[in-house]
Amino acid sequence: MLQFFVATKLFMSTxxxxxxxxxxxxxxxxxxxxxxxxxxxxxxxxxxxxxFLLKTDSFLQWLPWWAxxxxxxxxxxxYKKLSAGILYAVLLTSIGVFGLWExxxxxxxxxxxxxxxxLLIGLPVGIWMAYNARVELIxxxxxxxxxTMPSFVYLIPAMMFFGLGMVPAVxxxxxxxxxxxxxxxxxxxxxxxxxxxxxxxxxxxxSWQTLFKVQLPQALPTIMTGINQTTMMALSMVxxxxxxxxxxxxxxxxxxxxxVEIARAFDAGLxxxxxxxxxxxxxxxxxxxxxxxxx
Length: 295
What we know:
The protein has 13 helices and no strands.
């Protein structure tokens, strides 16, 4: 009886070894199969993204610093208020004072590229989800996994498909930052009152006309919030992407940490914070400007 009790206690306290299933090996096998059969396809995508990324980076590096500062001042003034525009211009100028202007432009080019691709994918998918309940049921768990999966994990398949450098950084950032714009596009369209949609149909509007002339304008503030969140999440990936050889502010933070150079890491980290504040406040101002006042 004592032996039975000891064996039962051991069984209850230790998970049985014979119940064993590892899902990751199937993911690895699938990735290897894609590499074997569609490597040319991924190389083509990588070349296209790299071309766009380099053009964006070249333009930002060519753009005079004062022109970008003036643009930030104008946007802050237009979508917030004059004092906000002055503050954002001063904050952006301080990045140049730190000696990190070129690295900031490189970081910004990666963020902009990832955000633009996210919008090209996320907006149509969000609209599709809003119109199709079955698609929404399938895609929502995928979005949950994309948001909760540790962001370091995305670097592994990105490196396998695209090697090291800026291109895999863009795709790792894309996967991490894509869910908000999809979710909030779906939410924004579904939040449009059914009476308004029915009124549009009753006046002879087609589905496309209703979408572009009624639903999307009504959902624009929510969609802009999704774009804001996507941009913030893309910016939060810059330090992680520096681990695969991406130059920029994230690399400066990583180098400062690895070499225990506090000043170097702090200046780069503060520059990331400044960039995030400026983008966040201006995009929020744009969203608020298009917000429809409650009756």
